[in-house]
Fold these 4 entries.
Entry 1:
Amino acid sequence: MFRLLATFCLITSQALWAVEIPKTKDLQQAYIETGRNSSGQEKVVMLLVSQPNCHYCLLITEEIIHPMLLSGRYESTTFFSELEINTGGSIKDFNGQQVGANTFAQRYNAWATPTLLFLNNKGEEIAEEMVGINTLDLYGYYVDKALNIAFKKINP
């Protein structure tokens, strides 16, 4: 019995670490490739603004976003991406322009991490951003609520 439980825990933990939030370097191209579902509906871009050594970013990633990705429930409605700021990196925005990661985040006043942005294919906010985290208890509920609002805005 112990071996079975240990094997299950090992497989489960490996599955969680195998799931990565895409750190998209070209939002325009990534959205062209994966921004619509098989019914032709647009997906919501859920962009996690994070930074290295951010404990709360890791918490949201492990406790909220990884389970969302693993569930498959959001595959047809949500395009997940992560933007790391304060690293000197850059990204191509939704217009195909190369901009610094910090500059891109500043467009949305996303200076605190973690911040979740809910965007359409033009980079416009379509649901209220979620800044920081106080507790995990209802965080997933609020993420779902924001995603539902956003999806309905772009697919009336």
Entry 2:
Amino acid sequence: MEPGNQTSVSEFLLLGFSEDSEHQRILFGLFLSIFAVTVLGNLLIILAVSSDSHLHTPMYFFLSNLSFVDICFTSTTIPKMLVNIQTQSKAITYAGCVTQVYFFMVFGGMDTFLLTVMAYDRFVAICHPLYYAVIMNPRLCGLLVLMSWFISLTYSLIQSLLMLRLSFCASWVISHFYCELAQALMLACSDTLVNHILLYVVTGLLGIIPFSGIVFSYIRIASSILRIPSADGKYKAFSTCGSHLSVVSLFYGTGLGVYLGSDAPSWRGMIASVMYTVVTPMLNPFIYSLRNRDIKRALQNFLVRTFCVQ
């Protein structure tokens, strides 16, 4: 078969959790509930931040962007999985698979960048409080978000275009609940060297550089907090970054478990992927709302205004 012949494949088969046929209804209900909670929780964060002028600060600007990305990130994988469970079908079209790969990389990359930018925001707030308003001005905040979108969209587009030039003439079965790029590349019968090089280089850069920035920021933050004389002052300083640190630990803990694990598909890998792509976006609103008085107050005011108007 000619390497450029892309008509050899019309669809892929996503095995996902189909082997567990006895619990399909339970899985459908579980993931539907998770998806609903994720969308509702992150949407409430966005509405609360946008409706409260006291939250129009860099920290909450980045948080609302993170909530929007988490809604999109979850929407990339769960709806298709729910449809496949409900229809008892494992198929996803070739175009659908490439599209899912593209948006998965876009929003996964955005999660990484936004968490890094939020760490920098906390670093400036705690280590340089007198210059915070000057450094974290609206122009810089907008530029940081735009740069994150540009990098994520560009890399994802390049990787997706490179995938389009491949031919798939062997097994079309992907042992996952979404079109995972590394597994899709393993099914290609044409040369995937460039794809793999770009995948591992960019994954390494998107993993190492942002994570290093987060670690560096928190080292400096910890150093500054330890120099605060009063215990109450230390607690207040740490409480401003406690939620972000919890989200970072959850995101990178599960994400690194996926990408540093074996390439061979396994139930352990799929569970780690569920934690990384599904559970973490669901928990983010709870982590920020339960540990943040400003978000709690904004949510209460928003709900009161909403129900009073009705």
Entry 3:
Amino acid sequence: MNTLVFLLYKYVIVPLAFMLLQLTRPFLKGKLREMIEDKNSGFYRIKIKDSEIELAAARPIWIHAASGEIEYARPVIRELKKQYPYLPIMVTYSSPSAKKILESLHDVDLWCALPWDIDFLVKRFIKKWNPRVLLFSRTDVWPVLVEVAKKERLPAALFSATFAEYRIGISFPES
């Protein structure tokens, strides 16, 4: 069942949503339109002292966080910069509201919108930046991104996660 859901997501839901968002974009306003335009343009911001080529060559540590989840990533980013000051930190986001938070994080060398969760776009992003690891903050884990990272042998991990109880119909005795 999970494979069927993933295949529906990957080959029906995401492509259909992508097409609908592209068609309706001229009529949209606010954060939704900004999110679409950021993802379409490959919007990214690099600190002035660094160049795109240097960042890719240095193989950044990639952290993905939704806007509110960046708060959970702050101490991780700070500690990574303390432990590995020579490694660039790249942060991707899903919501444009994250841009304001990211502007204030001095330990982040590059930030940009996460590409659409479509195979070739994710693969192109990974090839461009050549990250050494992908760290997900809390809950914003994208299925195709995880699949492509695995295929590209990009190590990935989840931090600050909260797991919900999942019942599968098996009861265990109380201790």
Entry 4:
Amino acid sequence: MDALDRKILTELQLDGRLTITELAARVKLSVSPCHRRLRDLEREGAIRGYRAIVDPAAVGLDFEALVFATLRWEDPDTVTTFEQAVTTIPNVIQAQRLFGEPDYLLRVATADMAAFQQLYDQQLARLPGVQRLNSTLVMKSIFDSRPLPE
């Protein structure tokens, strides 16, 4: 990956709806070579997909919490079982496995505190292998979905 590929990635992270003509102009390349590079980046997996970034408040998800999960290590399947189960909860919008303790960071979006409490009690606390959950509420999102640096 060279500097031109990185520039293409930066421009697409800023505006994923660019036409190939607009993208080529922004990276100062003709359309055909730009298109070839774009297809190569997609084929190699540098570009994993395209999507819209939706404002949570616009769809009634004004409340966000970070949930830290620590697992009981009963057997090697604990991690797999937990990870499979957490993917089935739509309100968990991001899940990351961490080194050390806690084991996982879950980003959760709900309509309000009452909806979060219900989700916490009925789904999160019942995830397989969970020893302990610890939550903190998001006061304000400064930025989200920031482009990766070049």
